[in-house]
Amino acid sequence: MIGTRLRIQPYSRRFRSALLDLSWYSQWTHKHLDWYTTSRWLDRDDVLIFLAWEGEELVGYIGLSPENYGSSWIRLMGLRDGFMPEAIVRELWQCAEAKCIELGISNIMVLMVSNWLPAYLGNYGFIYWDDIITFKYLGDYHPRQTKPSLKVRPAEMEHLPAIARVDRMAFRHSFRLSQSDLRQALHIASGATIAEYEGEIVGYQVSTRHCEVGHVARLAVIPGMQRRQIGSALLQRQLGDFEERGITTISVNTQLSNMPSQRLYQRYGFFRTGFDLEIWNKVLPRPSPE
Fold it and tell me: Which of 35, 204, 221, 284 is the residue whose CA sits 20 to 30 A from 152?
């Protein structure tokens, strides 16, 4: 049982082992790190992490991504088994929210990968925003198409600023990746390509691989060049690359509200798996003037 007071403090690296131990052993955990392992994410200097202590025992933590176009995501959260989760969540969230408002962050997002999160975050103003839906491809369909007059080639680190520009133009604020996150994505990718049109990078894709399953993790085309088969060319190139390596089971995620994206994948034989996750968000008040 929790006593009368919890102590909340910012994370520092001397608490790294305690946080990793809690994240490993607790059943009350949330992790949505995309391109990072927990250890690597904790090594970043730009993330917001708060710890909850009961005496000398770590009983909870919350970690948020750095501000990016006004938004931040809850990436890590954990509670010690056997303690009162409502009190821990309340204290952690109040501290995190105050810091986010101070930093001028206007929107907090969370992907509900843990079934206990909605019951608690719903008490603090988080509401449903969209769904992430999952598609799967089994390597049995290749549509015919006219190739657009563009070049598709491997992405290199030197292309990172142009890739970040495409990402910024193609996605809504809350879904845009920072340049550091895109660098990490390229670093761990099993396949990454760019699409060039008249010497300009107008699209890109990044894919990963886990054992014998491929995953199209990110695909974007700048708005002015969409509906010109550029997304199709990027996808077809990556499907071919997976096929050459004997990978025929491939997954991809997109938003329920993104119908053009869904149509692209369905055209290539991807089908809905039924594995959907809700995204919730909270709009924060502006910081009070001094």
Answer: 35
Give me the residue label for tokens 């088969």: 229
Look up tokens 């994505």; give the residue.
185
Backbone angles phi, psi at 101, to 5 degrees: -60, -45
3-state secondary structure at position 206: strand
User: In this structure, what DSSP letter does residue 90 have?
Assistant: H
Place of tokens 């594995």: 275
The pLDDT of residue 150: 87
Distance CA 143, CA 141 (A): 7
Instruction: Please name the amino acid found at residue 97.
Output: E
Q: What six digits make up the tokens of 289?
A: 């003037």
Model confidence pLDDT, tens digit, residues 218-244: 999 999 898 889 999 999 999 999 999
Q: Which of 229, 247, 267, 151 is nearest to 190 (CA)?
A: 247
Give the three-state DSSP class for 221.
strand
Residue 177 and residue 167: Cα distance in Å, rounded? 7
Tell which residue, 164, 209, 166, 212, has the closest CA to residue 191: 209
pTM of the predicted model as reported, rounded to 2 decimal places: 0.90
Residue 146 pLDDT > 80: no
Burial class (CB in 10 A: 0-12, 13-18, 19+), 88: buried
Which one-letter amino acid corresponds to residue 257? S
Lowest mean pLDDT among 23-32, 89-98, 143-152: 143-152
Cα–Cα distance, 270 to 105 (Å, whole number): 36
- What is the β-pairing status of strands 271-283 and 107-111? antiparallel
